[in-house]
Amino acid sequence: MQFVFSNMKEALQNCKLEISINFSIKYEHECIEIPTSPSCNTLQSISYLRVRTIALLLSCIYYSLDIYGQVELVSNNANLINPPYLKDYLNKPALNSRLIGLGEATHGTKEFTEIKSDIVKILVLQYGYKNFILEAGYIDCIKINEFIQNKNDDSLNLFKGLPWPWATTEFYDLIKWMRQYNIHSTKDEYIHFYGSDVGNHASVRFYKNQFANPTTNLFIENLIKIYADTLKTPNQKIAMLKVQSKAFPKLPNFTDSMKMKNILESLHFLLLRGGERYKFREITFADLTIAIIDHLSSKEKFILWAHNTHIAKFSDSRKTVAYFLNKRYSAHYTNFIFEFNKGGFRAVDTDSNRYQNNIFKFTNFNVNSDFNKIGSRIIPDSLNYMILDVKSPFNKNLVPKYFYINSIGAVYSKDLAKKKPALYREKIYRNKSCDYLIVVNQTNASSNYFE
Q1: Alpha carbons 77 and 62: distance in angstroms, whole number
Q2: Peptide bond before 165: cis, by omega within 30 degrees of 0?
Q3: CA–CA gap between residue 37 and residue 12 (Å, rounded)
Q4: In whole angstroms, how large is the CA radius of gyration of the chain?
Q5: Contacts of 365-373 spanning 24+ positions with Cβ under 8 A
Q6: What is the rounded distance in angstroms from the CA atom of residue 403 to the CA atom of residue 383?
Q7: CB-based contact 437:339 (threshold 8 Å)
Q8: Domains of the chain by range and CATH?
Q9: d(CA 243, CA 234)
Q10: Which of 158, 245, 413, 446 supports an S-S bond with 350, CB 3.0-4.6 Å?
Q11: How do the pLDDT tens digits run along the chain, 451 residues long?
C-alpha cells in the first residue's frame, strides 16, 4: 500500500489522497469499505463517511498521526519529500525563527543532503534565509562564497581547501543551485556562504598567504613555526599562540579578522587532545557562528548545516554548538535532527589504511535496523521518509522523553561498532534536544565529487 499524508485536515477537506486504494477498517464488528480515487475533488465523493469513521481511519494507520500536519508520511515511490508538503512543515519554524539548524546522522548519506537541500531552497525562495553557514572552516568556505556570487568560475578547485565530508556530488548540486539563484538575483538578494568551524587540515601550510597585507602573512608564518616547534609541549605552544594573538593589532576588516580568528583557533584546536579538543571545538564553532550572525543586520536569517551532534540543543556529554546558540537566540533558533533506520553511508574507514598520499580512503558501510534506536521503532517498511514535530502534544505517545539515534561522523570503524555500538549513538531528549525529527527508512552512500 502506498500513500502520502500531509496536513491531514486539509487533505481530507480537499480529498488529497494521491493514490487509489481500498482501505477496510473494522469498527464495532462491522467492516466499512472506503474507496478513494485521485480524481475525487470534493467531499461529496466521500459524503457517506461520518466524522467518527474518519477519525477511526486515522487512528488505524499503523501509529498515531498528528492530524494537523505534524507528521508526514511519504510512499516508497515518492521523490524524497514532496516540496509542497515540506513547505507546510517549514512554515511555522521559518516564520518564527532567525536561525534554523539542519543536522545529519552521518556525514556521508545521499538522502540527508538531498532532503536538506530541498529545505534550503524553500527557506531561500519563500522565507528569505540568505545566509548559509557550514560546519567547515571560515577560510575553507571563502572560495565557495566567491563561486556562488559569480566572482570566480573555478569549479574544478572548489573543494580543494574544503576537506571531507563536503566534497560530494550531492552537495555540489546545492552549490550550483545557489550560484544560479544569485545569477538571477540582485546583490541585495544574494545568498552568502560561510564556514564557522575550526579548520582541520592535514597541513597547516594551507593558512599561509591568506591576507593581502605582507605583515599579516608574516605573522601567520610565525604562528605556524610555533605550532611546528618540536622542542615545545602542546601546552607551551598554546600559551605562546595566545600571547602572540594578543600582541597583534586588531584587524579592521571583518573578513580578515574572521580569517585570523579561524587560523588561531584552528592551530589551538590541533594541539589539543581528547575531551578538551571536543569541548574547545564546540565553543569555538559557536563563537564564530555568533560572530557572523551578530555582524549582520538583525533582519538577516541564517541556515546552519552541520552534524546532529552540533545542532542539537542539549547533550548529556557536552555543551554543544547549539547549546550556546540556543542560549543566545532562544526561541529564534529551531533545529531539525535527521535519523535513519538502515542503509548505506560513506565514511573514512579507520579499520584499514586511512590515508594514501594525504587522500582519504573511503568505504561505503551499511547499518542494519536496530530496535534500540528511534528510527527502527517508529517507521514501517512501507515508508521512506517521515517528519515529526517532536514537541507536538499529538506525538507524545510516539516520541518518548528521550530516545537514541545513529551518530556517525566523518570516520567509522566497523570493528569498533561491533564492540562498542554506543559510540555511534546519540541520546536525544524530546523537550530539550530538538524541535523536529526527520527519519529516512533506507539510505544510500553519498557520491565522491572527485570520483
Answers
A1: 19
A2: yes
A3: 12
A4: 24
A5: 365/412, 365/414, 365/445, 366/342, 367/340, 367/342, 367/343, 367/406, 367/408, 368/342, 369/341, 369/342, 370/421, 372/404, 372/425, 373/339, 373/341, 373/403, 373/404, 373/405, 373/406, 373/425
A6: 20
A7: yes
A8: 8-61 (no CATH), 79-196+301-365+388-451 (3.40.1660.10), 198-292 (no CATH)
A9: 14
A10: 413
A11: 333 333 333 332 333 333 222 222 232 333 323 233 333 333 333 333 333 333 333 333 333 333 233 333 333 323 334 445 677 889 999 999 999 999 999 999 999 999 999 999 999 999 999 999 999 999 999 999 999 999 888 777 788 777 678 989 999 999 999 999 999 999 999 999 999 999 766 678 889 999 999 999 999 999 999 999 999 999 999 999 999 999 899 999 999 999 999 999 999 999 999 999 999 999 999 999 999 999 999 999 999 999 999 999 999 999 999 999 999 999 899 999 999 999 999 988 887 755 433 334 456 677 887 878 898 888 877 788 888 899 888 888 888 999 999 999 988 888 888 889 889 999 999 999 999 999 999 999 999 887 7
Cell matching residue 40? 475525487
Residue with cell 492530524: 67
Place of cell 543536522: 103
Q: Which amino acid is at 102?
A: L
